[in-house]
Amino acid sequence: MSDVLLEARGVCLGYPREQGWHSVLEDFDLQLAPGEVITLLGPSGVGKSSLLRVLAGLQQARSGSVSLRGEPLQGPHPRLAVAFQDPSLLPWLSLESNVAFGLDFARQPKLAASERRVRIDHAIEAVGLQHAREQYPAQLSGGMAQRTALARCLARQPQVLLLDEPFGALDEVTRADMQQLLLQLIAQHNTAAILITHDIDEALLLSDRVLLLGNHPARTLGQWHIDLPHPRGQRVEELGALRIDILKTLRRASRTPESMSEPLPPETAHVPGRLHSHAS
After folding, report:
1. Staple partner for 152: which of 24, 102, 183, 232, CB 3.0–4.6 Å?
2. CA distances from 22 to 5, 119, 220, 256 (A)
3. Which strands, in side-by-side order, build the sheet including 20-32?
4. Domain-by-domain residue ranges, the chain?
5. How far is 41 from 196, CA to CA, in rounded Å?
6. CA–CA separation, 159 vs 34, rounded Å?
7. How confident is the model at residue 250 (pLDDT cuts 50, 70, 90)?
8. 48-64 b/e with 16+ CB inside 10 Å = b?
9. 246 touches 223 (CB < 8 A)
10. R_g of the chain computed on alpha carbons
11. Is the pTM of this model over 0.90?
C-alpha cells in the first residue's frame, strides 16, 4: 500500500495480574489508506475496543507502534476522531453547542471565529440536522443523537474516523439509514474509517476490508477484501459466500482441543448475522 494514512505494527495488549502479565492481543498489524473503511470483527473480550483506543492515541499498547502519516502517534491527535455507541452528548448544551464542543478538545488547533462557524454549519448540514440545531439531547431521537456525534467528529475535519459500535443501540431502520450516511460522509470528505462491530452483515455492507480477531490471546484470524460497489444490499450471493467464510473461520478458531476431531456443523446462508461468542 503506497499511501498509508494510519499504521499499526506489532501492537500487543494486555494487563498485569498476580501471576504475571495477561496478554489479550498479540502482534496486530494494520495499514489504512485514505478513503478506506476497515472493520474489526470478533467475539467479546478479544480487545477490539482497547485496540481502537490505542489507534486513537488514548491508550498505550504493551508493545508495538502506531503512526499517522509516518509520524509516531504520541497521544490524541486532531486528525483522529472517535465515536462510540453512546453519543456522549452533554445534556445542558444544544445540538449546535455539542457539535462545537469537539473543536475545544485538547490539541485541537485554535480557529478564527469565522472558520469555527463554517465548520460547525457544514458539519450539521452534512448530517441533515439544520432544523434541530437548537434542540437539546433529551429532545433528540437515537438516530439524531448519533448524527450529532458524527457531526461533532466531522467539525474537526479528521483524516480518520474511529468508530466503536456506533449504531449498535439503534433500531434496524435507523441503523440502515446511519450506515448509508456514514458511507456518504466518508466519500464526500475522503475520510478513512476503522469500525468495530459484532454484526457480520454490517461489516460486509460497509467495508473495503474485514479483519477477524480471535483466539487466546487474540490475533488476526483472517482478512477479507470486498471489491463490490455500493450500495451492496442486493449482492446477496457474493456477500453470502463471504459471510459463510467468516463464520467458518470464527467457529474453527473457537473450537476447543477436545472438539477438534468433531466435524463442523453445516453452514447455510441464513445463519444469524451477529457474533454471539463470548470468548475472553
Report:
1. 102
2. 31, 44, 18, 20
3. 20-32, 6-17, 63-68, 71-72
4. 80-157
5. 6
6. 8
7. confident
8. bbbbbbbbbbeeebbeb
9. no
10. 20
11. no
